[in-house]
Amino acid sequence: MSHMLGADFVVDFKNADPVEEIMRITDGRGVDVAIEALGTHTTFEAALGVLRPGGTLSSLGVYSTNLRIPLAAFAAGLGDHKIVTALCPGGRERMRRLMDVIASGRIDLTPLVTHRYKLNDIESAHELFSNQRDRVLKIAITP
Question: Cross-referenced Pfam families, in alphabetical order (predicted)?
Protein backbone atom coordinates (compact mmCIF):
# COMPACT_ATOMS: atom_id res chain seq x y z
CA MET A 1 0.00 0.00 0.00
CA SER A 2 1.51 3.35 -0.98
CA HIS A 3 1.88 6.17 1.48
CA MET A 4 0.22 9.45 0.41
CA LEU A 5 0.89 12.88 1.88
CA GLY A 6 -1.65 15.65 1.78
CA ALA A 7 -1.24 18.34 -0.82
CA ASP A 8 -0.77 21.05 1.79
CA PHE A 9 2.44 20.04 3.54
CA VAL A 10 4.82 22.85 4.54
CA VAL A 11 8.48 22.36 5.49
CA ASP A 12 10.01 24.93 7.84
CA PHE A 13 13.26 25.76 6.06
CA LYS A 14 14.69 27.45 9.19
CA ASN A 15 14.53 24.26 11.28
CA ALA A 16 15.45 21.64 8.68
CA ASP A 17 17.09 21.34 5.30
CA PRO A 18 14.01 21.30 3.04
CA VAL A 19 15.38 18.77 0.53
CA GLU A 20 16.49 16.34 3.25
CA GLU A 21 13.19 16.78 5.13
CA ILE A 22 11.04 16.19 2.04
CA MET A 23 13.05 13.13 1.06
CA ARG A 24 12.79 11.83 4.66
CA ILE A 25 9.03 12.38 4.79
CA THR A 26 8.52 10.65 1.43
CA ASP A 27 10.91 7.77 2.20
CA GLY A 28 13.21 9.02 -0.57
CA ARG A 29 10.52 9.02 -3.27
CA GLY A 30 10.16 12.78 -3.67
CA VAL A 31 6.96 14.65 -4.51
CA ASP A 32 4.65 14.94 -7.49
CA VAL A 33 4.18 18.71 -7.09
CA ALA A 34 6.43 21.26 -5.41
CA ILE A 35 5.62 24.95 -4.96
CA GLU A 36 8.57 27.33 -4.80
CA ALA A 37 7.73 30.87 -3.74
CA LEU A 38 10.83 32.48 -2.29
CA GLY A 39 12.25 33.44 -5.65
CA THR A 40 15.89 32.51 -5.22
CA HIS A 41 18.04 30.27 -7.39
CA THR A 42 18.72 28.07 -4.33
CA THR A 43 15.04 27.47 -3.56
CA PHE A 44 14.27 26.90 -7.24
CA GLU A 45 17.01 24.26 -7.48
CA ALA A 46 15.94 22.64 -4.21
CA ALA A 47 12.31 22.39 -5.37
CA LEU A 48 13.41 20.77 -8.64
CA GLY A 49 15.60 18.37 -6.68
CA VAL A 50 12.68 16.84 -4.75
CA LEU A 51 10.43 16.11 -7.74
CA ARG A 52 9.60 12.55 -8.70
CA PRO A 53 9.85 11.64 -12.40
CA GLY A 54 6.96 13.35 -14.16
CA GLY A 55 6.59 15.87 -11.32
CA THR A 56 5.58 19.50 -11.61
CA LEU A 57 7.34 22.50 -10.12
CA SER A 58 5.13 25.55 -9.66
CA SER A 59 7.38 28.57 -9.27
CA LEU A 60 5.59 31.57 -7.80
CA GLY A 61 8.82 33.42 -7.07
CA VAL A 62 9.80 36.68 -8.67
CA TYR A 63 13.35 36.57 -9.99
CA SER A 64 15.44 39.67 -10.41
CA THR A 65 17.96 38.07 -12.75
CA ASN A 66 17.90 35.47 -15.49
CA LEU A 67 17.10 32.13 -13.91
CA ARG A 68 19.18 29.17 -15.04
CA ILE A 69 17.72 25.69 -14.86
CA PRO A 70 20.25 23.52 -12.99
CA LEU A 71 21.08 20.50 -15.12
CA ALA A 72 21.50 17.99 -12.27
CA ALA A 73 18.33 19.00 -10.42
CA PHE A 74 16.39 18.93 -13.68
CA ALA A 75 17.61 15.34 -14.17
CA ALA A 76 19.34 16.50 -17.37
CA GLY A 77 15.89 16.75 -18.94
CA LEU A 78 15.27 13.02 -18.48
CA GLY A 79 13.07 13.34 -15.39
CA ASP A 80 10.05 14.39 -17.45
CA HIS A 81 9.63 17.36 -15.09
CA LYS A 82 7.31 20.23 -15.86
CA ILE A 83 7.99 23.78 -14.71
CA VAL A 84 5.12 26.24 -14.60
CA THR A 85 5.37 29.86 -13.56
CA ALA A 86 1.77 30.09 -12.46
CA LEU A 87 -0.26 28.17 -9.94
CA CYS A 88 0.16 24.40 -10.09
CA PRO A 89 -2.82 22.09 -10.72
CA GLY A 90 -5.36 22.86 -8.01
CA GLY A 91 -3.16 25.77 -6.92
CA ARG A 92 -5.84 28.42 -7.16
CA GLU A 93 -7.93 26.57 -4.55
CA ARG A 94 -4.88 25.92 -2.34
CA MET A 95 -3.92 29.59 -2.61
CA ARG A 96 -7.46 30.62 -1.61
CA ARG A 97 -7.27 28.31 1.43
CA LEU A 98 -3.81 29.61 2.31
CA MET A 99 -5.08 33.19 2.15
CA ASP A 100 -7.97 32.20 4.46
CA VAL A 101 -5.48 30.72 6.94
CA ILE A 102 -3.34 33.87 6.81
CA ALA A 103 -6.38 36.14 7.22
CA SER A 104 -7.51 34.16 10.27
CA GLY A 105 -4.14 34.61 11.96
CA ARG A 106 -3.43 30.86 12.19
CA ILE A 107 -0.08 31.15 10.41
CA ASP A 108 2.75 33.62 10.91
CA LEU A 109 4.53 34.55 7.69
CA THR A 110 6.58 37.34 9.23
CA PRO A 111 9.80 35.25 9.23
CA LEU A 112 9.64 35.30 5.41
CA VAL A 113 9.61 39.10 5.31
CA THR A 114 13.21 39.95 6.11
CA HIS A 115 13.13 43.61 5.05
CA ARG A 116 10.57 46.42 4.98
CA TYR A 117 10.67 49.51 2.77
CA LYS A 118 8.42 52.47 2.12
CA LEU A 119 7.12 52.83 -1.43
CA ASN A 120 9.34 55.90 -1.89
CA ASP A 121 12.40 53.67 -1.29
CA ILE A 122 11.39 50.97 -3.77
CA GLU A 123 14.56 51.47 -5.84
CA SER A 124 16.71 50.62 -2.82
CA ALA A 125 14.52 47.59 -2.11
CA HIS A 126 14.87 46.41 -5.71
CA GLU A 127 18.65 46.85 -5.58
CA LEU A 128 18.87 44.83 -2.35
CA PHE A 129 16.75 41.99 -3.72
CA SER A 130 18.43 42.02 -7.14
CA ASN A 131 21.83 41.55 -5.54
CA GLN A 132 20.59 39.17 -2.83
CA ARG A 133 22.38 41.08 -0.08
CA ASP A 134 21.85 41.08 3.68
CA ARG A 135 20.20 37.62 3.71
CA VAL A 136 17.08 39.00 2.02
CA LEU A 137 14.16 36.59 1.44
CA LYS A 138 11.15 38.80 0.82
CA ILE A 139 10.64 42.54 1.09
CA ALA A 140 7.42 44.18 2.26
CA ILE A 141 6.63 47.49 0.57
CA THR A 142 4.27 49.83 2.42
CA PRO A 143 2.75 53.21 1.41
Answer: ADH_zinc_N_2 (PF13602)
Query: CB–CB of 60/35 below 8 Å?
Result: yes
Q: What is the per-residue pLDDT across 4-57, written as a single tens digit (0 to 9) for each?
A: 445 566 667 677 788 888 888 889 888 888 888 776 777 778 888 888 888 888
**CATH code at position 103:** 3.40.50.720
Cα separation, 86 vs 35, whole angstroms: 10
Decide if pLDDT at 116 tops 60: yes
Give how many domains the chain has, as a whole number.
2
Contact 20, 28 (CB under 8 A): no
Query: What's the confidence (pLDDT) of residue 62?
Result: 58
Query: Which are the contacts of 88, defined by CB distance < 8 A and separation ≥ 6?
Result: 33, 35, 56, 57, 58
